[in-house]
């Protein structure tokens, strides 16, 4: 049962739910922008995990890692969106199923 | 139920609902706005776990920076003029199945009471440590220098800043290098190749052409 204060397990369950939703989004969506948003959602779920454990073990390392993950997410979003724009210029579509030239 | 638990349940419900809507919305602008709501809810959850600085960074970087980037791209790509297409891919059933499996996996692994939460105290998350040598007089008269660690309770932001600039200085610098590389990469990838007509109109090309014409004229007249 949930106790008076939101426990680590409650945070982990929330984070697992968000991660699963993000994973579903990555798999089932065809719009590339939405796929990238779902990836950001998954990264956020991982951040919740790290912050919860940082509190549980009374250690700052989880928060430091979270900051680095946010950095990586920012770079990934920038490069990913640049790729999307270039794909749109090249093929006039951002449908992930259309970009299959490497499909052997 | 304690107020903290009520806040957690409300914010968590909003976060889950809006993240479902992120995935389910057809219009990317709506998805982006629900993603913003999810980010803000997660920032509140961070603050509740004693991570005030990370919560602020979450709002600044995600809600401020990444969302603007997403919305810019959505505006650049005219979604209405895209050919009509189905929202879901052909294997959406498999995707839902995988998501359900991962969810159940997490849910069975994270049973309540696994981690035996201690009495909640985020004092350690607000403490910076300073190290200094101190002379210690031994009983036998010898004087040795000992390294003494002293903790000082400050704010969470100061503690994180101290950790970033002392213990995690090298990763911090690597992160800045990573951001530089990502920026250059995004510029290079996103750069537009000029068409032939546009290339004829850039100043450098026009100058070069006039010089070539001049040289050809001189060679002809010589």
Structural topology:
The complex is a heterodimer of chains A (about 100) and B (about 220).
Chain A lengths: L7 H21 L3 H25 L4 H31 L13
Helix pairs in contact in A: 1-2, 2-3
Chain B lengths: L2 H22 L3 H21 L3 H25 L15 H18 L17 E11 L5 E11 L2 H10 L3 H22 L5 H5 L2 H19 L1
Helix pairs in contact in B: 1-2, 2-3
Please, could you describe this protein's structure?
The complex is a heterodimer of chains A (104) and B (222). With 104 residues, chain A is mostly helical. Chain A has a single domain (8-91), classed as Orthogonal Bundle (Helix Hairpins), CATH 1.10.287. Chain A contains three helices and no strands. Chain B is mainly alpha-helical and 222 residues long. Chain B has three domains: 3-84, Four Helix Bundle (Hemerythrin (Met), subunit A) (Up-down Bundle); 124-191, no CATH class; 194-222. Chain B has helices spanning 3-24, 28-48, 52-76, 92-109, 156-165, 169-190, 196-200, 203-221, and strands at 127-137, 143-153. In chain B, helix 1 (3-24) runs antiparallel to helix 2 (28-48) and helix 2 packs antiparallel against helix 3. The mean pLDDT of chain B is 85. The chains are: A mainly alpha (104), B mainly alpha (222). The interface between A and B is large, with 77 and 94 residues.
């Amino acid at each position: 049962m949930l106790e008076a204060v939101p426990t680590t397990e409650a945070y982990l369950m929330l984070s697992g739910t968000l991660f699963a939703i993000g994973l579903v989004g990555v798999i089932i969506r065809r719009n590339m922008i939405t796929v990238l948003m779902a990836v950001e959602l998954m990264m956020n779920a991982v951040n919740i995990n790290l912050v919860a454990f940082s509190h549980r073990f009374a250690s700052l390392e989880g928060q430091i890692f979270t900051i680095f993950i946010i950095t990586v997410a920012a770079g990934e979003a920038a490069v990913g969106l640049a790729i999307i724009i270039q794909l749109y210029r090249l093929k006039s579509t951002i449908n992930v199923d259309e970009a299959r030239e490497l499909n052997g | 139920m304690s107020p903290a638990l009520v806040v957690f349940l409300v914010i968590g419900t909003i976060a889950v609902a809006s993240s479902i809507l992120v995935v389910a919305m057809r219009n990317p602008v709506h998805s982006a706005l629900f993603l913003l709501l999810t980010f803000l809810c997660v920032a509140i959850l961070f603050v509740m776990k004693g991570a005030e600085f990370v919560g602020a960074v979450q709002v600044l970087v995600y809600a401020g920076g990444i969302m603007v980037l997403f919305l810019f791209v959505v505006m650049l790509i005219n979604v209405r003029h895209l050919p009509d297409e189905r929202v879901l891919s052909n294997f959406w059933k498999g995707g839902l199945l995988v998501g359900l499996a991962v969810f159940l996996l997490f849910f069975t692994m994270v049973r309540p009471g696994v981690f035996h939460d201690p009495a909640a105290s985020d004092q350690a998350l607000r403490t910076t440590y300073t190290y200094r040598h101190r002379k210690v007089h031994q009983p036998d008269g010898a004087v040795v220098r000992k390294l003494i660690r002293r903790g000082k309770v400050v704010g969470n932001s100061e503690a994180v800043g101290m950790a970033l600039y002392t213990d995690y200085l090298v990763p911090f610098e690597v992160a800045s290098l990573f951001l530089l590389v990502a920026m250059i990469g995004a510029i290079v990838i996103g750069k537009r190749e000029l068409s032939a007509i546009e290339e004829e109109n850039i100043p450098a090309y026009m100058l070069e052409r006039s010089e070539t014409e001049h040289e050809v004229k001189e060679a002809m007249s010589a």
